Amino acid sequence: MSCEGIRHVTVPRRNALLCVDLGRVFGDFYEIDERLQVVHLGKVMASPGDKYAFLYALADPNKRWLHVEDAGKLMALCAYGQTASSDRDEQALIDFLLPRHGILLNSLSKEDLRNSPYHNVGVTHQKFTNLARRVSDAIFDSIHTFAKKNLTKGFPLLIARGCGLNCESKQAFFRCFHSAMRK
For 13-26, how does the pLDDT look when each residue is reduced to its tens digit (9 = 90+)? Predict the structure, then answer.
């Protein structure tokens, strides 16, 4: 369900809410007022789910192309990554990947990164699961930074699609957002 289709969701009268659509392609926040008018608050990033799928394809020696279902696989692998600051290789890949738009449309290929230490390294390799964790943390940090700056009214939050947030990130976002609403 996208935020654009929010009119199909029952919202109590006189209550506004915020909606985040972090799907495969979109990474946007919306405000829905008590009359169900949708206002776009801004784009956090393009293609958060595709970023996950691309990373999975990059590390998997059996994959030549990005598959949308791989986003969920990569999010699961984040659980095996160790918590730490990004090293130089991780940060270089994060800096390359996060600002990219239209990964599928612009046909970014894993061969574009054939010199990367993560190219065909294997999806269960510790170096790669650490990278998965760092990318997930970087995506969360981008979302959280946008939310702190732009979502100041204390409205409840609806996550319409959460492909850009793994389970741990969703819980962290809920804790951050919920505590901000209570203030």
Answer: 456 666 766 665 66
